[in-house]
Design goal:
Elements: E1 6-9, E2 12-15, H1 46-52, H2 60-71
Antiparallel strand pairs: 1-2
């Protein structure tokens, strides 16, 4: 399986790079929807966040930093 990014606009799909095949291949196209309305503070709940993080041991910010280091 090969993954190639592209852009769909006005009924046309433009791939970021060409792909060579000797026969037809099946593809899956996923449309990544853009956020149409900006997020506002009322979209977030401090109490809900506390509940979701109740089992996290240690610092949440330390976990985020570690996750980002592993992604590099």
């Amino acid at each position: 399986m090969t993954t190639i990014l592209g852009t769909y606009f006005n009924g046309q799909l433009k791939l970021e790079r060409p792909i060579k095949t000797k026969k037809p291949v099946k593809v899956t196209v996923t449309f990544e929807e853009e956020v149409k309305t900006p997020l506002v503070l009322s979209d977030f709940s401090f109490l809900e966040s506390q509940e979701q993080l109740k089992d996290v041991k240690g610092s949440f910010s330390d976990e985020v930093v570690e996750e980002r280091r592993q992604a590099i």
